[in-house]
Structure prediction request, 147 residues.
Amino acid sequence: METELVTLATAGATTLVQQMATEGWAVVRRRVAALLARRRDAGDEASVERELDAARDDVLSAREDGDEAVPQGVAAVWGARLRRLLAEDPAAADELRALLDEVAPRRDQGTVRDIHNTINNHSEMHGVVIQAGFVSGPVQSGGPHPG
Prediction:
């Protein structure tokens, strides 16, 4: 399977799990169920919706308990299902992209610029240097903290 389709399926599954805790869940559930029901062995939309709702219950319960392994596992399962769909029906990629464009968090669509940083005196450096165009979530250093 093309790398692009694997990446798309992974993004779809990640977004699906993220949307499970939002007000827009019903719309996302319905659209993903319709998409997945196109597979030969997926069953009808209603049965896929029930599976999605069960996965959502697991994710929400796990997050209340502080368990992030369950959401990651749920994303892996649905990512595999999306990969199988895209392998069987590459035309489904356009529909999945359209859904992701609608519900995925918008990233800055500004101008891309080259940025160069130079660290001249390593002996004065007491922390981590990070250069990134977009950071989502906390950044943690594994090294010792200056003190």
In short: Confidence is low (pLDDT under 50) at residues 107-112. The radius of gyration is 20 Å.
